[in-house]
């Protein structure tokens, strides 16, 4: 199992970020993070010597914002869409 950082400011490589997110149930691959870094829509990152580094809290916030609230049935999603 991948190490889940205890420090929210920890800087992780793309591989470490993908492994830590996956360990928490947010299955994502390093390749997906790479694609999102190119096309947009991924977590913020910085470059160090040409290598992407993700701040752990930013990556976790990114994953959480893409997660829906808990539901009791699939019909709740239909009701939310029609109300919007």
List the helices and strands and how they pair.
Elements: E1 11-13, H1 14-23, H2 30-39, E2 46-48, E3 51-55, H3 56-65, H4 75-83
What would a concise description of this structure say?
This is DNA-binding protein. Residues 73-84 have a biased composition (Basic and acidic residues). It contains four helices and three strands, in the order E-H-H-E-E-H-H.
- In one word, what is the shape? elongated
Give the low-confidence spans.
none
Q: Strand order of the main beta sheet, please?
A: 1-3-2
| Number of E-state strands | 3
Biggest β-sheet strands, sense, barrel:
3 strands, antiparallel
What is the terminal-to-terminal distance? 40 Å
What does this structure look like?
The protein is an alpha+beta fold. It has a domain at 11-67. The chain has helices at residues 14-23, 30-39, 56-65, 75-83, and strands spanning 11-13, 46-48, 51-55. It has a three-stranded antiparallel sheet. A hairpin with a 2-residue loop joins strand 2 (46-48) and strand 3. It is elongated and about 50 Å long. It starts with 10 loop residues before the first strand and ends with a helix. The relative contact order is 0.18.
């Amino acid at each position: 199992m991948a190490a889940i950082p205890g420090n929210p400011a920890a800087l992780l490589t793309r591989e470490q970020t993908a492994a830590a997110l996956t360990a928490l149930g947010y299955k994502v691959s390093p390749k997906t993070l790479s694609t999102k870094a190119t096309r947009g829509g991924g977590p913020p990152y910085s470059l160090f010597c040409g290598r992407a580094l993700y701040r752990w809290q930013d990556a976790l916030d990114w994953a959480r914002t893409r997660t829906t609230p808990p539901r009791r049935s699939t019909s709740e999603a239909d009701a939310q869409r029609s109300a919007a």
